Amino acid sequence: MNDNRIQLIDRDITTLKVDVIVNAANNSLLGGGGVDGAIHRAAGPELLAECRTLKGCATGEAKITKGYRLPARYVIHTVGPVWKGGGEGEAELLTSCYKNSFALAAEYNLKSIAFPAISTGVYGFPKQAAADIAVRETRAALKADPDLEKVIMVCFNRQTRHAYQTALAQK
Length: 171
Ligand code: AR6
Description:
This protein has 5 helices and 6 strands, in the order ββααββαβαβα. The protein is an alpha/beta fold. Ligand AR6 binds next to β2 and α1.
């Protein structure tokens, strides 16, 4: 029943008209490549200006800004761990990214949220392990918050879609 509110979508996250999209940012919050670069380009320079006021973000934590020129109203910036082999708390840190992002969304009363596959690009987190964490934390958030209407997992490549499908097939 909670899975009815989860959608897999293959589009660029910056095109989604949802309450909030999540950015896979870095500790500076001042932009970068990958999905972070795409979000800053689409949102415009006002986003960078607001990010400068936030003074960075620790790995595993999350901060919220407005969405500016994006169709999404807000952006939650979270910083995933760099994969270093799995023995440095990477799974716990990625779990915190999802927990803190959902907590901010609830605090701001946001009903629809879209996530990229945090840490699975340049940061090298194995895609299946990351999808398992994303799906587990999404199910927990949906269970805890009946007002949360929709969680979109943006796949962006075939391996990521496959990883989410595998994770969702496990109850
Ligand atoms: N929409 C949705 N997903 C995307 C998009 C997009 N427009 N572009 C890429 N992805 P990454 P990370 C997917 O590398 O591993 C940045 O430089 C991509 O295919 O963006 O957390 C930051 O500033 C992958 O599945 O993020 C940090 O320095 C996923 O998004 C660093 O990269 C995440 O890939 C963060 O690395």
